[in-house]
Specification:
This protein is α/β, with parallel strands linked by helices and about 220 residues long. The strands form two sheets. Strands 5-4-3-6-7-8-9 form a seven-stranded mixed beta sheet. Strands 1-2 form a two-stranded antiparallel sheet. The chain is globular and about 50 Å long. The chain starts with a helix and ends in a 13-residue tail after the last strand. Bound molecules: S-adenosylmethionine (SAM). The site of S-adenosylmethionine (SAM) has 26 residues, from strand 2, helix 4 and strand 4.
Length: about 220
């Protein structure tokens, strides 16, 4: 498949899967129009990269469905000057999207092979403002806190406590919370000493494994 074939599939993805389902943040839509999702999937899956579903990326993990990536990103309401923390680098696709919409992204991945592959992709695509860390992201990444936005891309039994301490004033935390088989997307917002929660769509993510997540 040529780059222009991928580009046509990408445009169709944006119109049919995202705009039609209510994604309306123009910065998010425009970033997704130019981000080559086919560069973040396994070679044998490149032809399916723009389909309306998650795909396997190895190590038992997945790259999320485009709509879910767009929805979670839109919920963070990024304007361009934020420092963002992402938990669960996976393929790096969501990370690259955040990097194009914010000032700096710190992304934590527990599987080292996935973190390394994602780093190679950021280098190849010349994305300079991403820092990948290997470790248990359920503890957050206190070294670079506070963050104006925190995105967790794995399902947790509850929102991990350390993430609240690492959220800046006015900051947003988006996280799937629930059982291993299915979760509700939650958005938390810090207002002084209080944290306001909204429960949004049902989603199904692989588990967040770690000290403040699920046991291995
Ligand atoms: N956002 C990714 C993308 O665009 O490809 C998809 C992420 S995948 C659904 C979830 C990722 O979270 C997996 O790569 C998994 O290894 C990682 N993960 C699970 N528990 C973690 C933890 N405690 N810390 C960091 N990463 C974790």
């Amino acid at each position: 498949m040529s780059e222009s074939d991928f580009s046509a599939l990408r445009e169709r993805m944006v119109v049919e899967q995202l705009e039609r389902r209510g994604i309306d943040d123009q910065r998010v839509l425009s970033a997704l129009r130019s981000l080559p999702r086919h560069a973040f999937v396994l070679d044998e899956d490149r032809a399916f990269a723009y389909e309306d579903r998650p795909l396997s990326i190895g190590a038992g993990q997945t790259i999320s469905q485009p709509y879910v990536v767009a929805l979670m990103t839109q919920l963070l309401a990024l304007e361009g000057n934020e420092t963002v923390l992402e938990i669960g680098t996976g393929s790096g696709y969501q990370t690259a999207l955040l990097a194009s919409l914010a000032n700096e992204v710190h992304s934590v991945e527990r599987v080292e092979t996935l973190a390394n592959t994602a780093k190679e992709r950021f280098d190849a695509l010349e994305i300079p403002n991403v820092h990948v860390h290997v470790g248990d992201g359920s503890r957050g990444w206190p070294e670079e806190a506070p963050y104006e936005a925190i995105l967790v891309t794995a399902g947790a039994p509850r929102a991990p406590k350390p993430l609240f301490a690492q959220l800046a004033e006015g900051g947003r935390l988006v996280i799937p919370v629930g059982r291993k088989g299915g979760q509700i997307l939650q958005r938390w917002r810090r207002e002084g000493k209080t944290f306001k929660r909204e429960d949004l769509s049902p989603v199904a993510f692989v588990p967040l494994i770690g000290r403040h997540g699920w046991d291995r």
